[in-house]
TrEMBL record:
This protein's UniProt keywords: DNA-binding, Transcription, Transcription regulation
Signal peptide bounds: none
Protein's name according to its UniProt entry: Crp/Fnr family transcriptional regulator
CDD domains in the record: CAP_ED
Taxonomic superkingdom: Bacteria
Domain Cyclic nucleotide-binding, residue spans: 13-133
One Pfam family here: HTH_Crp_2
One GO molecular-function entry: DNA binding
PANTHER family: CRP FAMILY TRANSCRIPTIONAL REGULATORY PROTEIN (PTHR24567), DNA-BINDING TRANSCRIPTIONAL DUAL REGULATOR CRP (PTHR24567:SF68)
Residues covered by the HTH crp-type domain: 147-217
InterPro entries xref list: cNMP-bd_dom, cNMP-bd_dom_sf, Env_Response_Regulators, HTH_CRP, RmlC-like_jellyroll, WH-like_DNA-bd_sf, WH_DNA-bd_sf
Coiled coil regions, renumbered to chain: none
GO CC terms: cytosol
Length: 224
């Protein structure tokens, strides 16, 4: 289990801070442990924090009053999220749910605003982050409309290795088939079929509780 300091030092924006700045932002962050199935944050609540996954795996989604869940994206260790909601200062538009027990860093609003006011590097990071997230969601909409379940699952897995959004990703992904299904919006049985097909194509290797990516570029274009 890694510390908050270790997570921050792996974040591109934090490495550029002075020792005094680093200490100030550290004091503005609390780390909470979220159980499997628990809410990291909820749609409709006031937005008071910028959040980062210290370790674990969470899902950005929207839960309707009918009980239907629409999944947007997975968020793995090292990923930060929620900056758009803070910048717009409006109620949160989505839920974030822990797919396994996860530790999440919550940076309070005043610390986030102080960073925006005092760090050019942090602002450049935010621009890059927002642009990357926009591209991710546009691609997700395209994949949902045009690709079959096998190809959608391939793109879902590939999205977890975005070097900008998830800089700490490595090619061995500790994830269950159930978790993949929750991320991709596909049944566990269908996930198993799709993974076998991707393994036969030489794109990944399946182990118990993990997947090793053999051809990331191939996953990103599978089904085209």
């Amino acid at each position: 289990m890694r510390s908050l300091n270790e997570m921050l030092m792996a974040s591109a924006w934090a490495r550029e801070l002075s020792a005094e700045q680093f200490q100030q932002i550290n004091e503005g962050i609390v780390v909470r442990t979220i159980p499997t199935g628990g809410f990291v944050c909820m749609k409709g609540e006031p937005v008071e924090y910028w959040m980062g996954v210290v370790d674990g795996l969470v899902k950005m989604a929207s839960i309707w009053s009918t009980g239907k869940i629409t999944s947007f994206t997975g968020l793995s260790a090292g990923g930060w999220f929620g900056e758009g909601s803070l910048l717009k200062n409006e109620p949160r538009k989505y839920d974030v749910i822990a797919l396994r027990e996860s530790r999440v860093a919550y940076m309070n609003r005043s610390t986030f605003q102080w960073l925006c006011d005092n760090s050019i590097h942090f602002n450049r990071f935010l621009i890059t982050q927002l642009n990357e997230r926009l591209g991710q969601f546009i691609a997700m909409m395209e994949h949902e409309r045009l690709l079959d379940p096998d190809a959608r699952l391939a793109r879902c897995l590939a999205s977890l290795f975005n070097p900008v959004l998830y800089p700490e990703s490595n090619l061995e992904l500790k994830i269950s088939q159930e978790e993949i299904g929750l991320l991709a919006g596909i049944s566990r049985q269908r996930v198993n079929q799709a993974l076998r097909k991707l393994e036969e194509a030489g794109l990944l290797h399946i182990d118990y509780g993990s997947i090793t990516i053999l051809d990331l570029a191939g996953l990103r274009c599978f089904g085209e």
